[in-house]
Each structure stands twice: as C-alpha cells, then as structure tokens.
Amino acid sequence: MSPVLRKVVKKLGRFPTQRDLQNNNLSSIGTAITHHGGANAVRKRLGIEAERKDKGYYSKKNNVHKEVQAMIRQHPEFEGDLPSTVWMNKNGYSSLLGGIRKCYGSYGSFRKKEGLEGIQVATGKWKDLEFAVQQAIDLMHKHKFGNLPGSFTLDKLGYASLVVAVQKYHGGMPRFRQELHTRLGIQGEETELSSLLEKYAGVAE
C-alpha cells in the first residue's frame, strides 16, 4: 500500500480523503487505511504530518461548522450524517472532535443541534438487547441492507457503538445476527426480509 499511497500524497500535496481515493479508483486503499488503524496511524507510519490549524482555530463555532461540512463532503459514504467519535479519532479528526466538544459541550449536543441524533445514545442503553436489535433493524432499513453487515462495514458507516455493544453485551456479531434473524423470521430470502423490515420499522407503504 505504501508506494501507491505515497504517490497519491505526492500528487495531491496532502494526505488523501476518502473522496480523493474514490475519484482515483483507489477505494481499496481507503479500506486498507481503515484496516491499519485509520488515517492517523497510517500517516504516522509513513512519516506524513497531519495538516495543522492555528492555535484557537477550533474554539470558534464557525470554523468547527466549516470543517464538519468539509468532512461530510469528503466522506459521502456517511450520506450527510456524522460518523462516530471512534471513527473521527481514528481518521484524523480528533482536533475537530475536540473543537465540537469545546464549542457545544459534547458531541451528542452538537448532533442534536444539527438534527443528527442518530445512533448516539446514553451509556447503558446498549445493554438492552431489544434496543440493540431495533437499532440494527433501523439501520438495515435506512441503508437498504438485505442482511446485517459485518463489524468493519458498520464501523465505517458510523455505527461503532452498535458494534461495541454487540461484542461486549450480546455475544458477538454471529450470535447477534442469528438472534436478529430469529426475531425477524428470516429464512434467507431478501424479499421476505424486506417485508419484515417494513413491518418492524413501521414503514409499510
């Protein structure tokens, strides 16, 4: 990965965003970056310094808002939503996350203000299996998934909290997926799943 990534960095004059990689048909490099610990870890490994902002830059709300919008544009895979705090820390946005917390009190408060409450929920709620199952159903419907994807995809899409909850409280992804299928009565047919999702998510036309 390093020679190709270095070539892209040289061409752009900076570390590439997810959109940069997609535009250059290098989405697999983005996957590899995530697999190797995220943008911060890969930058450090390659000796590439992250872009630095002036001291106090992230203490101003207008700068925070501008950088959040830039992040959303650069990562269309989030479909206009905000990623998890885990993803932000791993992918070079820790300073922005710090600015959000400084200006708005917490990441959850900022999400609520922006109308992006999403899957960020109170600590302890994830221990409830019923809650976790409903969140899984909701995200499957939102992204039109025929099945609950794996941990890597969920984390990439900003559902790191669900992944952690499944692993910590609900027996791991295979067991949780089996529980989800049992509750929904899934027998492997995507058409059946779609109708069940409509029933459980309350979106039947």
Describe, in plain words, how this protein is organized in 3D.
The structure is a single chain. The chain is mainly alpha-helical and 205 residues long. It folds into three domains: 1-51, no CATH class; 52-118, no CATH class; 125-201, no CATH class. The chain contains 13 helices and no strands. The chain has helices at 2-12, 18-23, 27-35, 39-46, 61-74, 85-90, 94-104, 107-113, 129-142, 151-156, 160-169, 173-184, 190-201. α5 crosses α7 and α9 runs antiparallel to α11. The longest helix is centred in the N-terminal third of the chain and has 14 residues, at 61-74. It is globular and about 50 Å long.
Notable characteristics:
13 helices; mainly alpha; 3 domains; 0% strand; single chain; 205 residues; disordered C terminus; globular; 61% helix
